Amino acid sequence: MGSILKRFREPIFVVALLAVPFVIFFVKAKKGRDLNPVDKVIVSLTAPIEKTITGAAFATLDVWRGYIALRGVREENLRLRRDLLRSRSTEQQTTELRLENERLKRLLDFTDKQAPTRLLISRVVAVGASPHSHTLRIARGTDDGVVKGAAVIAPEGIVGTVAQLTASYADVQLIVSPLSAVPAITQRTRSRSTVKGTGDIGRCKLEYAARSDDLQEGDALITAGGQGFFPQGLRIGRVTNVTRKPHGLFLDAEVVPAVDFSRLDEVSVVVAAEPTPPPAAPVNEPIAGSPQ
Amino acid sequence: MTLRIVLVILVCVALGVIESVVPFLFHLTAARPDLLLIVVLYLALHDDVVEGAALSAAAGYLSDLTSATPAFLYTFLAVLTFVVVRLGGSALKTEGGVQSAAVAFGASLVHSLIATLVFGFFTGAGFHLEIGSLLWSAIGTAIAAPIVFSILRRLDAGFLHADTGGLH
Q: How many domains does chain B have?
């Protein structure tokens, strides 16, 4: 037995190296991944290096932009002032609409069932190492209140969800990943569907959109909300390549994400709002009739 | 030998960091080279079976850590690539830069194809074969292969020099 083991040492070792990872992958294929202590140690060692390199690169870029590329600042300043005036006017209108919305909600006795949340701004420090991965690494982790599955958004729209995390860093799985599926609503028609990742960084697939829906090229899709998903009403992308087959329940369409994932420097993570401190306890006064 | 193992792992870690940071800084979505796959190819063509397979598994594990895919997918694929390239090793010549680029191009295409199939089949995510993306990635890998091969050759030459130096 010993001589056989010695003779076939190499093939046995290689087969074991193939079998062990495959079995673990097979067992956990549909469960996602939680980082074990060894994984966390390695990420804790490599992520700060990535953060330092990207930080240094962005600092150099800032110096370039700040001191060397000053040409056109006056024109840009004028343009920004005009934009600011326009934004203020829009903001006033938005505030009016928000107040009107709140009044109407009160009239309808509508209560917001969504848990209170806050946005945590985070820097992107790297992308997934494999060319086939669809992840971003951000400089926020469990220490900042980030949890697995937390929604990650950008000003243009939704980015993805937190797939794995350490104390200081989190890996965000983009909505273009084949493992991602986001419940969606068409903004114009309010019809429901699901935006599924395909692995293509510039395109998703629209699933479960009824063939009878009046879905058109360019329609905006927003998140449908629901427990465990993105907050309601965030931009996902625009519908393209709508095809209606003569048979079947659903139509075929693609979605161009609202966010350009290759140009994300900062994102926001949706985390639970910090619990508000309970109101100060009233001074204990003897209650009439209570035993003294 | 132990020092060489440590150095190869450090090279893998450095390449993993480069793979994560460079595409982000330069906004690369296509033509992203699979640097750790090139290390696996080098190990399959130049290393001892046991040590090469173990180091390939380590390289795959580093890919696994940032991909947020189910655990050990890339570890399995790295060892599989090592075995396949090792078996066909006698037919593959990688002495020159062009030869190593050609081998890396082919290996990257096959690796990506198998990754897509295994991932789609076992996770239930379905098969989404992006030919354009696979080709660009293979081109990026082919361009980077001569550089990574050269780094690893230098590392091995340093060890060989140290070994033979003692005989004089």
A: 1
Alpha helices in A167-216 (DSSP H): none
CA pair distance A44, B18, nearest whole angstrom? 16
pLDDT tens-digit map of B139-153: 999 999 999 999 999
**Is the pLDDT at A30 greater than 90, yes or no?**
no
Domain that residue B70 falls in: 2-159
The answer to whether residue B168 sits within a structural domain is no
Contact present, B104 and B111 (Cβ < 8 Å): no
For B99-152, the pLDDT digits (tens) are: 889 989 999 999 988 888 888 888 777 777 778 888 888 999 999 999 999 999
Query: Is A133 within 8 Å of B67 when comparing Cβ atoms?
Result: yes
What is the rounded CA–CA span in Å between residue B147 and residue B97?
Answer: 8
In a domain, residue B164? The reply is no
What pLDDT score does A231 carry? 87
Which chain A residues in 32-61 lie under 8 Å from chain B, judged by CB atoms? 32-33, 35, 39, 42-43, 46, 49-50, 53-54, 57
Check: complex ipTM more than 0.95:
no
Chain A residues within 8 A of B11 when measuring between CB atoms: none
CA distances (Å), B3 to each of A242, B6, B54, B56, B155, in order? 58, 5, 15, 16, 11
Domain assignment present for residue B106? The answer is yes
The distance from CA A285 to its chain's CA centroid, rounded to whole angstroms, is 50
Q: Is residue B165 part of a domain?
A: no
Q: B107 vs chain A: nearest CA distance in angstroms?
A: 14
d(CA A124, nearest CA chain B) in Å: 9
